[in-house]
Specification:
Helix content is 38%, strand content 16%. It contains 18 helices and 17 strands. This is Glycosyltransferase subfamily 4-like N-terminal domain-containing protein.
């Protein structure tokens, strides 16, 4: 019998940059003059022991999800015996040194370089996505995991499903032994918005619903995702915002004299590039400069990108100073339906980094975007949801509006300082984990809100 749905706890990503987005593995340790450190030395989180961590990703220094886990759990990562990753993504962003000796690569054969050389990349990709092959891989991975766990007792796990593999592998493992787990959905790469509605592959939807309902607790990355899972799967939500910002820079209440200079720090995937291209035509007419800092490859230089200056990677120890050398930070979100599953459900790591920088945020994206909803509700940014000559002219003018700017950056500073601390994040995590793995009959459905 399917168990009653458990609570959903929203995890707002920490103030930690993606290496693939801006070329840094962590925020700088030192503080600039006047900067407030939010680091705590207290022992974090719950003492609950986990047999394994399961995900398509590894716990890496080079990826936002891995950094989030390290920030939140701290030394308590030692309470996880093994880290299993099921995708080449876990190799592209290799595990952190602290967990490297406990990490087991269960990547699909069809993602291995030797097979790609034999059958070709296209054929290997098709095979890796074939349902029969994914089932074979999931069963094989489950058998391997089961063989490495102690016999005679249920296993306990943290699962971070980014795609279908983690869910399918766990289901096959549950056939072999009982597994008690929490599910932490940082990205939902499976759902798509098609013909005006959200859809999962037919075979995966009931599997994912079962996965969420049988979890001891479900963590998600935004209130939009929490609402979506409640609507789609009946998962009751308990919202917590957790960006453990280790540093909080002073608010930049006045803009820099001269022409308006804006910057974007992040990757140039389609869900960011689309919005950057949307505002590009209005830069020159309004005498605005926009610099893009990204560790990834630059897009093909076309006339559409001409108004934008590409700066490449920023050294880690210069990141915050560079962010504060501009009048504002652009936060772009795609208007395209192909990116809707990312835009509408996700909170990017860079948002908390932006808010903690002390600079003004200019967010550009659709009304439905999770970050637009959050920033508008918190009144913590200039928000543009309809890109046209009038809206962009007003937005650019607002960057230099001292009264408006001061109100927004002070509000953002207050949000980071009073609501989004690392201590709060760890307290909510600890309470949720301890409650979830306590007495099954006496456990209270605590509702955490900020």
């Amino acid at each position: 019998m399917t168990r009653a749905p458990h609570r959903v706890t929203e995890l707002f990503l920490p103030n930690a940059p993606f290496r693939d987005a801006i070329g840094h593995s962590a925020v700088p340790e030192q503080c600039i003059p006047g900067q407030r450190s939010m680091r705590r030395s207290n022992d974090p989180s719950s003492n609950v022991h986990f047999d394994f961590f399961l995900s398509e990703m590894s716990v890496s220094d080079a990826h936002g999800g891995g950094i989030t886990l390290q920030r939140l759990l701290g030394d308590k990562l030692r309470n996880i015996d093994r880290f299993f990753h099921l995708s080449q993504f876990g190799n592209d962003y290799p595990p952190a040194q602290a967990v490297q000796d406990r990490t087991v690569d269960l990547c699909s054969w069809f993602e291995q370089a030797w097979l790609k050389r034999i059958v070709g990349c296209t054929a290997a990709m098709k095979l890796s996505q074939d349902r029969r092959m994914t089932t074979v891989h999931a069963k094989s991975a489950a058998n391997r995991i089961d063989s490495m766990l102690a016999s005679g007792r249920p296993a306990r796990a943290i699962v971070c499903p980014q795609g279908q593999r983690s869910v399918e592998t766990l289901e096959h493992l549950k056939i072999q032994r009982p597994v008690e787990y929490v599910s932490w959905v940082m990205d939902d790469h499976v759902v798509r918005h098609t013909n005006g509605r959200w859809e999962y592959p037919l075979h995966f939807r009931p599997l994912f619903e079962k996965h969420l309902n049988e979890a001891r607790a479900v963590f998600v990355i935004s209130s939009s995702m929490a609402e979506f899972y409640e609507r789609e799967f009946g998962i009751k939500n308990s919202i917590v915002l957790i960006p453990p910002a280790e540093q909080l820079a002073p608010p930049m209440t006045t803009s820099i004299p001269g022409t308006t200079r804006l910057a974007y720090f992040g990757n140039l995937s389609s869900w960011a590039a689309d919005a950057l291209l949307a505002i590009a035509p209005f830069l020159i007419a309004n005498k605005i400069s926009l610099a893009v800092y990204s560790a990834g490859s630059q897009p093909t230089k076309t006339s559409a990108w001409e108004p934008i200056e590409f700066m490449g990677r920023t050294p880690q120890d210069e990141l915050l100073e560079t962010m504060r050398s501009y009048d504002g930070l652009v936060l772009p979100m795609s208007f395209q339906n192909r990116d809707k599953h990312m835009v509408d459900l996700n909170i990017a790591t860079r948002l908390s980094q932006y808010l903690a920088s002390g600079n003004l945020v200019l967010a550009v994206g659709p009304d439905s975007a999770a970050m637009i909803r959050y920033l508008r509700e918190q009144q913590a940014a200039i928000v543009v949801t309809d890109v046209n000559a009038t809206s962009m002219r007003e937005a650019f003018h607002s960057v230099k509006n001292s009264h408006l700017r001061s109100r927004i950056v002070l509000r953002a500073n207050d949000i980071v300082k009073n609501q989004l601390s690392l201590d709060t994040a760890r307290r909510i995590w600890s309470e949720t984990i301890d409650g979830s793995f306590g007495s099954r009959t006496d456990r209270k459905e605590a509702r955490h809100t900020l």
